[in-house]
Design a protein that fits this description.
Length: about 140
């Protein structure tokens, strides 16, 4: 019984290793990155985004945090077009940021966030390199 209480407490006040997924799609000179990650992973590296202090990211907080999340993701998820010896860092923007509705979460469920980055190269992408350093501050 005590073990179950301790396990539940650890889920409320922390979380296991971050779970995230990324999917990159290349079309010509455009790369689209679909991301899914735990809200807690983002809030641990950018705690100021959680204005309410509830360790969740509601729609209002997500809207207010959008510029900071865009800057964080673009800085920590870099795509480079490789052309021989040249590297071109793709310029991009955050096209979507959608936190899971906290009201729909079960008592021990961790909130997920979906995001979409769209990045552009100056020429079609033949060789792409990824540099990913998310949530490792």
């Amino acid at each position: 019984m005590i073990l179950a209480v301790l396990a539940a407490a650890s889920l409320v006040h922390g979380h296991p290793d971050s779970l995230s997924q990324s999917r990159v799609r290349i079309e010509g000179a455009r790369a689209t990155v679909e991301l899914s990650f735990q809200a807690l992973s983002l809030l641990e590296v950018r705690p100021e985004l959680d204005r309410s202090g509830d360790r969740l990211l509601d729609a209002g907080e997500a809207a207010a945090a959008r510029p900071a999340v865009e800057a964080y993701l673009l800085d920590h998820y870099r795509l480079l077009r490789i052309d021989g010896e040249r590297e071109e860092v793709l310029a991009g923007r955050l096209e979507a940021l959608e936190p899971e509705d906290p009201g729909l979460l079960g008592a021990l469920e961790l909130q997920k966030v979906s995001a979409r980055l769209v990045l552009e190269a100056s020429n079609p992408i033949e060789v792409l390199e990824l540099e990913v350093r998310r949530f490792q501050e």
